[in-house]
């Protein structure tokens, strides 16, 4: 099988994980105008909860269900008791409080699971490879592509085909208009913040069997998520999807063509997009 085609498929899988990371960040910023630097911490917690579930004797599938529920609930509680009171403050306050929260989570991970990374095996049914002619590819990575694609469709339906999605889209334009429609804006904010954290947790669970879990993975993930959001456009669901795929494919291809510059090329792609479209590929001007 052509190595470049294989890398493109790898890039699609990585890009879909980046999409799950970035879509929550993008929605929260589009609706709340809130810069959440703790978003990567939810991703890291998802990976570690997957590891802990296996230690408790549960399987990967239980972790895939429980982790986003637990982390979404924690995010909902955090939003209600802490973050809600700084929405009206300048973005500097958003950065300070969420960076502090991210550092606290990182230190709690080190205290609870140690400073070194841990390995998370894929589920037994997804171990091994798929062989179809000269096509040989890991089963687990194919599952990640398929599962994240289905999840993207479900999220698209939620945001485009439901009353909640309509309120989110309207709120990204004017929160005052949403309030006039009789919708509890703060409840909507809490729900979207929890949804964003839950999707980041799912990305962490899915990434754990590929790259393991380690305390500083949230910082790396946060940087990539911001790049994806900037490329796709703030507040855009489709932009997060396109941006995630673009970043994943560029990174995967460059790891073969120029391994030392693979990460650099992500920033080059972001700079190129911003030069052509300052608001992102699908962002609103």
From TrEMBL:
The subcellular localization recorded is:
Cell membrane
GO molecular function terms noted in the UniProt entry:
transmembrane transporter activity
* Cited InterPro entries: ABC_transp_permease, BCAA_transport_permease
Question: What biological processes does GO assign it?
Answer: amino acid transport
Q: Where are the transmembrane segments?
A: 12-32, 37-54, 60-83, 95-116, 140-159, 180-210, 222-250, 262-280
User: Keyword Transmembrane helix, does the record have it?
Assistant: yes
Gene Ontology CC terms: plasma membrane
Q: Does the keyword DNA repair apply?
A: no
- Main location group: membrane
Membrane topology field = Multi-pass membrane protein
Keywords of this entry: Amino-acid transport, Cell membrane, Membrane, Plasmid, Transmembrane, Transmembrane helix, Transport
PANTHER family associated with the record: ABC TRANSPORTER ATP-BINDING PROTEIN (PTHR11795:SF442), BRANCHED-CHAIN AMINO ACID TRANSPORT SYSTEM PERMEASE PROTEIN LIVH (PTHR11795)
> Family, per the entry?
Belongs to the binding-protein-dependent transport system permease family. LivHM subfamily.
Name of this protein: Branched-chain amino acid ABC transporter, permease protein (Inner-membrane translocator)
What is the native source organism of this protein? Cupriavidus metallidurans (strain ATCC 43123 / DSM 2839 / NBRC 102507 / CH34)
């Amino acid at each position: 099988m052509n190595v470049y085609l294989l890398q493109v498929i790898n890039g699609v899988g990585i890009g879909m994980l980046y999409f799950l990371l970035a879509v929550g960040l993008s929605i929260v910023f589009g609706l709340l105008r809130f810069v959440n630097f703790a978003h990567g911490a939810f991703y890291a917690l998802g990976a570690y909860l997957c590891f802990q579930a296996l230690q408790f004797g549960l399987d990967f599938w239980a972790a895939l269900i429980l982790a986003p529920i637990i982390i979404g609930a924690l995010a909902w509680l955090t939003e209600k008791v802490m973050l809600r009171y700084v929405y009206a403050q300048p973005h500097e306050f958003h950065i300070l409080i969420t960076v502090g929260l991210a550092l606290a989570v990182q230190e709690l991970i080190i205290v609870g699971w140690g400073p070194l990374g841990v390995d998370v095996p894929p589920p037994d049914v997804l171990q091994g490879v798929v062989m179809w002619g000269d096509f040989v590819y890991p089963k687990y990575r194919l599952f990640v592509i398929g599962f994240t694609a289905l999840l993207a469709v479900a999220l698209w339906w939620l945001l485009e085909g439901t009353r909640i999605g309509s309120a989110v889209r309207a709120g990204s334009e004017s929160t005052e208009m949403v309030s006039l429609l009789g919708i509890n804006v703060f409840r909507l904010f809490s729900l979207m913040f929890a949804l964003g954290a839950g999707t980041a947790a799912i990305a962490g669970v899915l990434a754990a069997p590929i790259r393991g879990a380690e305390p500083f993975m949230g910082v790396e993930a946060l940087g990539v998520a911001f790049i994806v959001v900037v490329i796709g456009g703030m507040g855009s669901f489709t932009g997060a999807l396109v941006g995630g795929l673009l970043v994943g494919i560029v990174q995967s291809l460059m790891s073969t063509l120029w391994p030392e510059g693979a990460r650099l090329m992500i920033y080059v792609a972001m700079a190129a997009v911003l030069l052509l479209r300052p608001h992102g590929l699908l962002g609103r001007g």
